[in-house]
Amino acid sequence: MGHDAATLAALLSGAGFIAPEEETAELLKCAAGDPQLLDSLIARRLTGEPLAWITGSISFCNLEIRVDPGVYVPRWHSEALARGAVVRLPPKGTAVDLCTGSGAIARTLMSRRPAARVVASDIEERAVACAKANGVEAYLGDLFAPFPPTLEGRVDVVVGVVPYVPTPELPLLQRDTFAFESPLAYDGGPDGTEILRRVLADAKRFLCPGGALLLELGGGQDRALRSDLARLGYTDVSVLHDEEGDVRGIEATLG
Ligand SMILES: C[S@@+](CC[C@H](N)C(=O)[O-])C[C@H]1O[C@@H](n2cnc3c(N)ncnc32)[C@H](O)[C@@H]1O
Question: Consecutive 10-residue runs of the chain (255 residues): their mean pLDDT?
């Protein structure tokens, strides 16, 4: 296999990758001049394995985040949620990042609010290990279950990219996503809101009055959650959009 950048970019482009030049640069950097290693990295990428698993990291909110194989790869469209959470976190406040995966959102909060306490949870051991390797205080378990009770009523920000894809839509996810990433990262139950609704109810116990809840979700789910939000006492509910105008999340205040 030819190893110059143009040949590799053409190979990746021909295989349908949408950013062949950028990917080529990352693969070349990762191989550090070792042609055999480069061949093996390219072969892995051509199977559709996520680039971040191959290179070991990804950029998120201008931070280099380690991403171990098997751990959900943070997406650019979640950066707005992370930035929104930073805005709501007082300098010495406390934040919870649910379903943290690699810990990308928690790390963003830690880097922008170095005096704050940031804790995170994930139900997958390899995700918790990866988040810890990224310096995050991460706990293994279901949503809020692993957090110390001393946090109840004291959290300024609860943020999360929890699974929200409706189960029937899982097969429609990108081929590579479906082939490589765990359905546990995506499956939000019959209409996608099962875990989101549990978070709304449980966050109430942990948030302080005036605390903020920021959750990523898909189109239409903001409307589905309105009555739960009102019933549970959340106010100032706003919908977050991405650069393309699609609904990407909600932000709400407790009390
Ligand atoms: C879509 S990924 C988001 C990861 C990370 N927040 C990010 O944006 O890169 C969802 C994560 O939720 C975790 N997860 C799924 N169900 C969970 C649960 N009940 N409690 C805690 N974590 C859960 C998965 O293991 C996965 O890492």
Answer: 84 93 95 94 94 96 97 94 97 98 98 98 98 98 97 98 95 81 93 98 98 95 96 96 88 96
Domain 76-254 has CATH 3.40.50.150: yes
User: Would the pTM count as exceeding 0.90?
Assistant: yes
- Alpha-carbon distance values, 236 to 179, 206, 214 (Å): 39, 18, 12
Q: Could you give the residue range(s) of every CATH 3.40.50.150 domain in the chain?
A: 76-254
CB atoms within 10 A of CB 84: 18
- CA 102 from chain centre, in angstroms, equals 8
Q: What residue ranges line ligand 1, CB within 6 angstroms?
A: 72, 74, 78, 99-102, 104-105, 121-124, 127, 142-143, 161-163, 184-185
Give, using CA atoms, the residue closest to atom 17 of ligand 1. Answer: 123
